Amino acid sequence: MFSLLRSLFRAWRLERWTAIDIRKDPELAAAAQAVRSGDLATGVRQLAATRADHERRAVELDVLRDAAVQHVDELARLADQQPDDADLALWLGATRIAHAWDVRSSKRASQVSREQFEQFWLLLGGAHAPLMCAAELLPNDPNPWDQLQWRGLGLQVGRPELDEVWRQLTERGPRFYGGHASRVQVLCGKWAGSTTEVLEFAEKAAANAGPGSPIAALPVAAHLEVAMDRDTFPNHFRDPDVQAQLTGLSDAWFEQAEPHIRTPEVHHLFGAALYMMCDYDRAARHLTRVDSQTLPAFLPWAYVNYVPGNDFLTVRRKLGLR
């Protein structure tokens, strides 16, 4: 459990690598810098411009959330002043969740004080109202419901509540990658599901979404979780059935990939899995399409790099990639 928690906490660190290379998005980079300097209005405008694109909205929300953690109180005051602003409400809810994980820290539970735990739970609890407000103000946006999945995971709410959040999310975003990736976490055996359930979910989601969707890489995430749960990492990926499944998904996605903001994440997931299978040519085919400066905040490398010599940069060097 500790290894999973440690990885999950790493995903919420303020200074984290993200799924999008903001060096190639100067407008977003400028907005994030403005937010870090206390200019929250610029962040609201940036987020508001994403309303028509749920996938981009999720990624930009991650960037702006991290930039705003140190200004969460000011963000709350601004949201109170503008209660009908859906973007503010969503941003506040997401930032409170990130702030909660920062307060909790990445220490073992035995090393976290009672005061830290109480603050952690309080901050997660405080994310509910703004996220529900955002959901009401923009009823077609799946992002508030995705954030509610992470809130529920931290508070360890029951499956009925998590399943209802999932139902609401998929009504609004049946192919929403971010929400599906979060659901994989919910269904892990170490959280609110089981090995069988998470694998079945990921396989069915990939099949239903089609080979060109980034959701095709969800089985990699599910197998990463199973390997960690069973303490068979990375040998789990050398099972012939696992290899056949993931190689097939990788090849189909590579040939039919649709343009998507999450494409780099898919390359990372398949590239890491194929590397662990010792299928170095296929791994390089994926990882040559991502640079060494940008990688997802959580999976796959937060798990892969627990094996000495398997951190992202070392893997790139072993594959002969710059």
Descriptive account of the structure:
The chain has 322 residues and is mainly alpha-helical. The chain has two domains: 1-173, no CATH class; 175-322. Helices cover 66% and strands 0% of the residues. It has helices at 2-11, 26-36, 40-48, 54-68, 72-81, 86-104, 114-125, 128-137, 143-155, 159-172, 177-186, 195-209, 218-230, 240-256, 263-276, 280-287, 301-304, 312-318. Helix 6 (86-104) runs antiparallel to helix 7 (114-125). The longest helix has 19 residues, at 86-104. The chain is globular, with a radius of gyration of 19 Å. The two termini are 35 Å apart.
State the oligomer.
Answer: single chain
Class by helix and strand content?
Answer: mainly alpha
Number-wise, the strands total 0
User: What count of structural domains?
Assistant: 2
Number of discrete helical segments? 18
CA radius of gyration is 19 Å
Low-pLDDT runs of 5+ residues are: 1-17
Q: Give the CA-based shape.
A: globular
